Amino acid sequence: MQCVRAWRSLNYLCRVAHHRAWKRTQSHTTAARLDLSGIYPPIATPFTAKEDVDYQKLEENLQKYAKIPFKGLVVQGSNGEYPYLTVEERVEVVRTVKQSLPAGRLLIAGSGCESTRATIQLTQKMAAAGADAVLVVTPCFYKGKMDSRALIHHFTKLADSSPVPVVLYSVPANTGLELPLDAVVELSQHPNILGVKDSGGDITRIGLIVHKTKAQDFQVLAGSAGFLMAAYCVGAIGGVCALANVLGQELCELERLCVSGRWEEARVLQQRLIEPNAAVTRKLGVPALKQAMEWFGFHGGSCRSPLQPLTEAESQQLRRDFSSNGWL
């Protein structure tokens, strides 16, 4: 009988200690939780004629971005051509951006790799280089096996070991793989997974993610300027938008209009952004984004091989998409 009482007492004390530790962890997590709301350009990586990273031109772009009211910058995302950079280059670009970033702005670094082990290692390097959070794309080379079970395992192991918060990244146009809704919902419960950037463009899915994760303080970012207003309508809190590299002030204005509920003005501005956004994303991609950056006074330049510059016909189409909406 005494053994039973002792066991019960010990069990009670363990539960109390666990609860207190859990509360301390929750308080620390809540206090440290980053507010992601706002607009982020996923910045391009300038290259020299020999295809080396051009750090001088990168810093000149950063000086111009500092004058635009972005919440922060996404570095080494899809528009930064991260698959074509070495690990050392990816980290050095992040370190360079951190040194030039104005105080109070967030730096979100892309650290996704194909294996969980490599992603964890690169995430730790990105954190050491100054990243406030990491944006982690779904592994996709073996996409036939990347079901919810595999992806939950991957992102959970990463979040368990990451020294900075994790933002999930679903970009099916590039990966051929959409992060399943049930996986997003389960992962939203992890204290070190802050939110998701969803670039798929399915507004019903974005609204459902917001709805199903609302108890978790989970933050949803639109992955494109083409549906930014619609995403705000269903509960997104910001956007990581390629077009912000070119029309950053205008994207920040659209955010302001949406947040303040000025929907008619927001609608007019959103409509003018649809065609140029499509041109620099799904239609013509990173080469078009870099060409447009040159027109608007930024350093875009050439892409790293095997990406090729636009043809003359593509360049003319790009110009029409901007000029017909009053941007050129």
Quick structural summary:
Keywords: Lyase, Schiff base. One of its GO terms (molecular function) is 4-hydroxy-tetrahydrodipicolinate synthase activity. The protein contains 13 helices and eight strands.
Note the total helix count: 13
User: From the coordinates shown, what is the CATH architecture of one domain?
Assistant: Alpha-Beta Barrel
Helix-strand makeup class: alpha/beta
Mean pLDDT: 92
Please provide the ordered H/E string of secondary-structure elements.
HEHEHEHEHEHHEHEHEHHHH
What would you give as the CATH superfamily of one domain? Aldolase class I
Major β-sheet annotation? 8 strands, parallel
What portion of residues is helical? 40-55%
Fraction of residues in β-strands: 5-15%
CATH topology of one domain: TIM Barrel
GO cellular component, one term: mitochondrion
GO molecular function: (R,S)-4-hydroxy-2-oxoglutarate aldolase activity; 4-hydroxy-tetrahydrodipicolinate synthase activity
Keywords: Lyase, Schiff base
InterPro entries: Aldolase_TIM (IPR013785), DapA-like (IPR002220), Schiff_base-form_aldolases_AS (IPR020625)
